[in-house]
Structure to design on (225 residues):
């Protein structure tokens, strides 16, 4: 079945550091890929998405590129801020009628 | 445009009771999914409804059930509550199609005592 694997956390960075969060997937067919973010006490928010190979999703300074050859969708940001502290989830959707499959999530803490 | 609305936000129930949670999706979204989120297990898929039919189901016991109404609003019910059912229950709605992600509500925090 479909699955998403995220790097182990938590991750702690200093403000303005470079961020990479790894995500790899296993899926039938050609899934759409998503990154969600969850701030404390809230639901999940869609951060960015990519629907086909080599697509780059971007939002709020975050980027991720759909790499079919390595089945990866790593999240990057050039300079993190304290306000980026949250839990980040990688997810995929494979097929029009399929559910969204999530990774375990990783907690990011950014120090001033 | 209104988002996904979940009610209530917080709930405290006693072991053995039952509970019903409600979700109003974004207007025009016919797919509604439910997830359970706990610190230990993370996000776990409960079920998905589309046009009043359950289309996908996760690996939860029969105490967990749901339904969707003709206006796409959805409810989930948990009977005979156990302490381990304490969690954040998230509802999400979506347009139909692989390229569409979900829009999540803020969740219902259920505490079973």
């Amino acid at each position: 079945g479909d699955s998403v694997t995220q790097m182990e956390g938590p991750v702690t960075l200093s403000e303005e550091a470079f961020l990479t969060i790894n995500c790899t997937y296993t899926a039938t067919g050609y899934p759409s890929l998503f990154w969600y973010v969850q701030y404390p006490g809230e639901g999940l928010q869609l951060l960015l998405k990519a629907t086909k190979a080599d697509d780059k999703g971007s939002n709020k300074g975050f980027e991720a590129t759909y790499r079919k050859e390595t089945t990866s969708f790593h999240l990057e940001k050039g300079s993190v801020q304290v306000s980026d502290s949250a839990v980040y989830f990688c997810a995929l959707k494979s097929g029009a009628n399929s559910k969204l499959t999530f990774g375990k999530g990783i907690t990011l803490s950014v120090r001033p | 445009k209104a988002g996904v609305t979940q009610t209530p936000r917080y709930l405290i129930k006693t072991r053995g009771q039952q509970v019903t949670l409600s979700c109003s999706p974004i207007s025009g979204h016919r797919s509604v999914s439910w997830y359970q989120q706990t610190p230990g297990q993370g996000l776990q898929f409960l079920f998905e409804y589309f046009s009043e039919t359950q289309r996908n189901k996760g690996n939860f016991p029969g105490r967990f059930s749901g339904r969707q109404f003709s206006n796409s609003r959805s409810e989930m019910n948990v009977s005979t509550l156990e302490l381990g059912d304490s969690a954040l229950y998230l509802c999400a709605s979506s347009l139909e199609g692989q390229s569409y992600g979900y829009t999540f509500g803020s969740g219902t925090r259920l505490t079973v005592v």
About this structure: The first strand of chain A starts at residue 3 and ends at 6.
